[in-house]
Amino acid sequence: MKLGSFTRHLGLAVVAVFAVAACGNTGGGGAASCSAAKTAKSAADCGGMDALVKAAQAEGKLNVIALPRDWANYGAILDGFHAKYGIAITSDNPDGSSQQEVDAIKQLGSTSRGPDVVDVGMAVALANTNLFAPYKVATWGDVLDSQKESTGLWIQDYGGFMSIGYDSSKVPEIKSIDDLFGSQFKGKVALNGNPKQANAALNGVMMANLAEGGSLDDVSKGVDFFKRLKAAGNFSKTQATTATVKNGTTPVVFDWDYLSAGHGKDVPTWKVFVPSNAILGGYYAQAVSKDAPHPAAARLWEEYLYSDEGQNLWLKGLARPVRQKAMTDKGTVDSVAAGKLPPVNGTPQFMSDAQSTAAKNYVVAHWDAAIA
Amino acid sequence: MAVAARSIQRTRWIKLQVFRYVVFLLAAIFFLVPLGAMVEFSTRANDGSRTLDYWKAIPSYPDLTGAIAASLQLAVITSIVMLVLLVPTMVWVRLKLPRLTRIIEFMSLLPLTIPAIVLVVGLFPMYIWLNNNLSDSILTLSLAYVVLVLPYCYRAIDAGLGAIDVKTLTEAARSLGASWFTVMWRVIVPNISNAILNATLLSVALVLGEYTIANNLLYNNLQVELVHLARDNAGVSIAVAVAALLFAFALLVVLAFVGGRPRRVHDEPATALAGPLAASQT
Amino acid sequence: MTVAGSPAVTTNVGRPFLGGRRLSLDWVGAVPYLTYVGLFLVLPSVIIGIGALLDANNAFTLDNFRNLSRSYVVKATIDTTVLSAITAFLGAVFGALLAYAIVTGSPNGILRRLTISASGVLAQFGGVTLAFAFIASIGPAGFVYLFAQAHGFDFYKQDLWLFEIPGLDLVYLYFQIPLMVLVFLPALDGIKPQWREAAESLGGNTWHYWRHVAGPLLFPAFLGSVLLLFANAFSAYATANALINQGQPVLAQQIAGALSSEVGAYEPGFAKAIAIEMIIIVTLVTVLYTLLQRRTARWL
Predict the structure, then answer these.
(1) Interface test with A, best of B73, B135, B227 (most A CBs within 10 A)
(2) pTM (2 decimals)?
(3) Chain B partners of A95 at a C-beta cutoff of 8 Å?
(4) Do A247 and B234 make contact, defined as CB atoms within 8 angstroms?
(5) For a pLDDT cut of 90, what percent of chain B falls above it?
(6) Among chain C residues, CA nearest to B102
(7) Do A239 and C128 touch (CB under 8 A)?
(8) Which residues of C touch B237 (CB under 8 A)?
(9) Do A237 and C245 contact (CB within 8 A), yes or no?
(10) What is the mean pLDDT of chain C?
């Protein structure tokens, strides 16, 4: 009967699609000159940089996660790595949080789609060192001891300062944080995310805290600032995106200075303000996954990021790369890009792990009620 | 008497048309204004003039075609598996296992009670096993998607089955010697073609719009690639969203035109049985 | 209405259910569905349930469920339930009206096909882009608001309600109404003109027809659709998160926060406990729905 054969063909087609898809998964790395890539603690363990490059190219793929192209110029870094070594990069979960990155290692690390490397906030890095493989890049010595884990489990990569970015054509110039209580800022001030969840937002609250005279150990003045801002009707609860910034719904955003600068593409009149009494810095950290499906490529990626080329690309994204001082001393820094960084006059402060935890606890308990 | 009846009919018809036009007008305003705002924003340049630059930037993304192809394949597979799984089961339960109705109904609603963001946590073990033993392909997502579309498709098909007399149709067909397959394929399905079409539309739209599960399982389907694109700049992010909507709409319109002639059950009461009966009547 | 006599009859209608040889074969018909759903739905739910009973060291604990009494979770539970109920009911009513307007047109017409395709697309439209669609139109910088403001009507004078629950109610309707159209249309297709004729021949007018004939007959499908819309709104996450990013007013946002927080508020067990709470709430609503169904179906 016609119908019977039709359904049979349909069934075959479905099976065929599955079979083809299953066969399409070609295996990665074969034998290369770096046979112990999975446990290599440095390029030397692998037989030198050239051996590492060869092994990575034999693997042919790199899985990265939560690296949006517009974040600190990652787009150019991904393209640069691909152009230099010819390794295909799969970029997953662009909007992912640091927690989701380590969750991906925990859950899918054993599959071929698991992330090879992660770029996470310090809180998440410190809490998940059991997931990382120790690796020291060639330029290991250029990084301060306080900015890396001694065996190479994680190493800070770039950072910036918490800032208030604003569209100067829609709101008046901001010279101090208390300007935000002005009537022209009604419903216009937003955080980049929720401080119970996002690193950038928590640091935004802490920066307000410092600007209002608080200390790193106690974030209550920061939460109180936003409570007063909400009461004045100036705090907007909606999510600040490039679209809401451009269309004028959230023309004032608390964000890392390098991320804030990105809005300049859409809004030519965008300015970035860092209060002189509240220079709050934050660095992110790199780590290699213990179960990386492409261990040689993962390590090569780290070498690339910490090479002069990689560090200067971050500089172009207006982030401060961790080797900036060493590169300036050696003269390899991109001085044009360095000159574009927002000027910072004063001593930067950084939250320690304990202070960050205390701030988190306070925020979790008080934030929702404060901005209700 | 006939004249009075006709004028009642006429006033009723007029009232109905007024009602229809008012409803359509209000619906058009409510649904089209936000979409119009998006189109306006996506064609607005930094200086306020009109521009198509953001729209023109869309086709230049190489990863996009692969993602579209994958999502289309997922839509097809999900819809087929869903229909094959759901329609016979629902008919069978109506006929033979009416006590299971509430359980089937509740299980169909369950996927909707668990937000996708936490459902994916429960799916991890299954997918790890699948990836390591069967296939790594993005098409394995369809297995999870069938579960996601269940609530919507169950409700649509249930409404369709409720509007026809399944018991009578089946008994009549079976008494004429039809096999169960014939009953399903040539008697039941044509009578609920509208419901099946609506279920398929919902299923295709869901698969094309699904983001969370694909994203957390580290697959790059259409919506994940759109998020990549959206990070480029504000105008592109909205242009791409509108383009995705138009793409899904075009696809569904094609489906709606191809997928069977919509007809109301009461229009052709006898044709439902025409198939198996016709043979015995000639 | 069995046709007797023919040896080809294999239906078991009329035979006793228990004790018949056919009993085991009947259950087989539900096996494929139950197995599939069991693997890809029940199993994950069980995994989530077990996860809710474990703490960070994988030891048994009831703390996650105890933490459900945290004030912001209780508030989110109430707000989400009310939000879902309102948008389910309003979405069902408006959706039913729109569906009726569609179904009374030409069954093969272009209008019908276009509107159901549009409904299909809009029913799944949500997230950041839907939020932005509303922000760009009626938001504080949107053209509708600016136009109204220029003409003296400032609808954000009291407060910026778009970024509070009322705003969420409105935005949710944008996908609730099309969803209702799609799932309720097949039921409206089943309206027979004989019903109208019967009502008229007994002297009833339009009101009587709807109140006593078509209404009760359509009520089961209507109620089922309301239930679907409720569950749909209850678990929606992306749209709420984009529109109201601070305060996490919706339960799904509380879950996401506990699962993906990168500042250390990471509590996966707690997130799963909230998910179990959501399942329980929807189960309760389903029970309520079942009771309502039984009451209204009694006269049929």
Answers:
(1) B135
(2) 0.85
(3) 215, 227
(4) yes
(5) 26
(6) C290
(7) yes
(8) 129
(9) yes
(10) 85
Task: Say if the Cβ atoms of B128 and A68 lie within 8 Å.
Answer: no
**DSSP secondary structure letter of residue A187:** T
Report all structural domains of chain B as residue ranges with CATH numbers, in order of start: 68-232 (1.10.3720.10)
Low-confidence stretches of chain C (pLDDT < 50) are 1-10, 12, 19-20
Are the CB atoms for A199 and A287 separated by under 8 Å?
no
Residue type, A255: D
Question: Do residues C62 and C53 touch, judged by C-beta distance below 8 A?
Answer: yes
Strand ranges, E, within chain B: none
A246 inside 8 A of chain B by CB: yes
SS (H, E, C) chain C: CCCCCCCCCCCCCCCCCCCCCCHHHHHHCCHHHHHHHHHHHHHHHHHHHHHHCECCCCCECCHHHHHHHCHHHHHHHHHHHHHHHHHHHHHHHHHHHHHHHHHCCCCCCHHHHHHHHHHHHHHCCCHHHHHHHHHHHHCCCCHHHHHHHHCCCCCCCCCCHHHCHHHHHHHHHHHHHHHHHHHHHHHHHCCCHHHHHHHHHCCCCHHHHHHHHHHHHHHHHHHHHHHHHHHHHHCCCHHHHHHCCCCCCCHHHHHHHHHHCCCCCCCHHHHHHHHHHHHHHHHHHHHHHHHHHHHHHCCC
Distance CA B31, CA B245 (A): 13
* Position A109 pLDDT exceeds 60: yes
Smallest Cα distance from C56 to chain B, Å: 16
CB atoms within 10 A of CB B28: 10
Reduced to 3 states (helix: H, G, I; strand: E, B; else coil), residue A174 is: coil
Do the chains contact at A371 and C160, CB–CB below 8 Å? Answer: no
8 A C-beta contact, residue A158 and residue A146: no
Tokens (6 digits) for A160: 């910036």
Q: Identify the weakest region by mean pLDDT among A33-47, A118-132, A210-224.
A: A33-47
Whole-angstrom Cα Rg for chain C? 24
In angstroms, what separates the C-alpha of B279 from chain C's closest C-alpha? 16
Instruction: Mark yes or no for CB contact A238/C156 under 8 Å.
Output: no
User: Chain C interface, mutation test: which of A100, A202, A234, A238, most C Cβ atoms within 10 Å?
Assistant: A238
ipTM exceeding cut-off 0.95 for this assembly: no
Tokens 């996490």, located at residue = C248
**C242·A239 Cβ contact <8 A:** yes
User: How many Cβ pairs closer than 8 A exist between chain B and C?
Assistant: 307
Q: C-chain residues within 8 Å CB-CB of A360?
A: 263-265
Q: B56: which residues sit within 8 A by CB, 6+ positions away? A: none
pLDDT score, position A32: 43
Tokens of A193: 């995310």
Mutation target for C interface from A95, A171, A197: give the one with most C CBs within 10 A: A197
Pick left, alpha or beta for residue A73 (phi over 0 → left; psi -120 to 50 → alpha; otherwise beta).
left
Spell out the residues 6+ positions from residue A313 whose beta carbon is closer than 8 angstroms to its own.
A73, A76, A77, A80
List, in sequence order, every residue forming a beta bridge with A350; answer none if it has no partner.
A281
Secondary structure element (H or E) that encloses residue A252, with its range: strand A252-256
Q: How many CB atoms lie within 10 A of CB A243?
A: 28
Helices A2-23 and B62-95 sit at what angle, rounded to 10 degrees? 140
Instruction: Please say whether the beta carbons of B153 and B204 come within 8 A.
Output: no
Q: How far is CA B57 from the centre of its chain?
A: 30
